[in-house]
Amino acid sequence: MIRHEAVTDRVRERASFYRLGLLERAEAAAFKHHLAECDVCRTEARELGDAAAELAFGLVESRPGPRVREELLRRTAPRPVLVRRGEGDWRATGFDGVEAKQLFVDAATGNVTSLVRMAPGAKYPPHRHAGHEHCYVLEGDVVFDDHTLFAGDYEVNPPFTGHSPVTTVGGCLLLLTYNHGDQLLAQ
């Protein structure tokens, strides 16, 4: 687990989400465990909680008008997303032989669902998951340090776990859900 040396925007964000109860259950449990090890995050979470408690005493209860409620619901209500075959653009990822077609972004959680295509021999670097990573192999093979997935295989990796480099022998097509907060690790 990483011990932070200073408060960063990322530390503030994670501590804020934790104190407000906005992390998924597994993320909250992992962050709670992290707080036992990291003085910076523990202090930030405590101070954010203290500030939130003070703010609560200064608030005056009010009810927005029905138009405000309707507009808020209109803007935040989930909408169906439909992506037809052939729609969307394949984009380079910055890693040779790896491209992705983004299907959906959940702005509230930072989760992204994409199709990922890797050419034979392509390599994606090691990384740390900020949220759950779901990988379903549609075609081909995906090779990790300790196992290989083939067409029809599905794997979930939990938040705050590291991942070995990813490669493929014959190429592959994946349905992948990951989080914008994922971090690449040095090789």
Write the layout of secondary structure elements.
Blueprint: H1 9-20, H2 25-37, H3 39-58, H4 66-76, E1 91-92, E2 98-106, E3 111-118, E4 123-124, E5 127-128, E6 133-143, E7 148-150, E8 154-157, E9 162-163, E10 166-167, E11 172-179, E12 183-184
Antiparallel strand pairs: 1-2, 2-3, 3-11, 4-10, 5-9, 5-12, 6-7, 6-8, 6-11
Protein described:
α1 crosses α3 and α2 (25-37) packs across α3. β6 (133-143) and β7 form a beta hairpin. This protein has 4 helices and 12 strands, in the order ααααββββββββββββ. Strands 1, 2, 3, 6, 7, 8 and 11 form a 7-stranded antiparallel beta sheet that branches. By secondary structure, it is α+β, with helices and mostly antiparallel strands. It has 2 domains: 9-76, Arc Repressor Mutant, subunit A (Orthogonal Bundle), CATH 1.10.10; 91-184, Jelly Rolls, CATH 2.60.120. The model has no long low-confidence stretch (mean pLDDT 87). The longest helix has 20 residues, at 39-58.
Give a brief outline of the structure.
Helix 1 (9-20) crosses helix 3 (39-58) and helix 2 packs across helix 3. By secondary structure, the protein is of the alpha+beta class.
- Give the second-level CATH assignment, the architecture of the largest domain: Sandwich
Q: Terminal Cα separation, in Å?
A: 18 Å
Task: Tell me the β content.
Answer: 25-35%
Helix content: 25-40%
Structural class: alpha+beta
Number of domains: 2
Mean pLDDT reading: 87
- Low-confidence runs: none
Going by CATH, the homologous superfamily of the largest domain would be Jelly Rolls
Radius of gyration: 20 Å
Largest sheet: 7 strands, antiparallel
Order of helices and strands: HHHHEEEEEEEEEEEE
> For the record, what CATH class of the largest domain applies?
Mainly Beta
Per the CATH scheme, the topology name of the largest domain is: Jelly Rolls
Q: What is the count of helical runs? A: 4
Shape: flat
* Number of extended strands: 12
